[in-house]
Amino acid sequence: MKYGLADYHRGRVTPAENRALAACAVFRGDVLIVESEHDDIIPHPAIENYLAALKGAHSLTYRVIQGADHALSEEKWQQAYTSLLLNWAT
Length: 90
What we know:
Radius of gyration: 14 Å
Mean pLDDT: 91
Helix content: 40-55%
Number of helices: 4
Low-confidence stretches: none
Strand order of the largest sheet: 1-2
Order of helices and strands: HHEHEH
Structural class: alpha+beta
Number of strands: 2
Distance between the termini: 41 Å
Shape: flat
């Protein structure tokens, strides 16, 4: 069964049902997932699908920027993202 975008955003989708998740399932590198707490573009169920698919990654770091929207429209959220990214990469 193939899932559409609305299904993908609402609930559980497995790697067998989605090409992006299938690629994640075989990825063995290091992964950083940063979620905005109040993201209206990428809802939390979509993040959960990626987290589940990435179980075979060498390392998986997951962080949530509290209060943030998808665009990181406040400078404090942009700074939080930059800090997370730099700390993860170094």
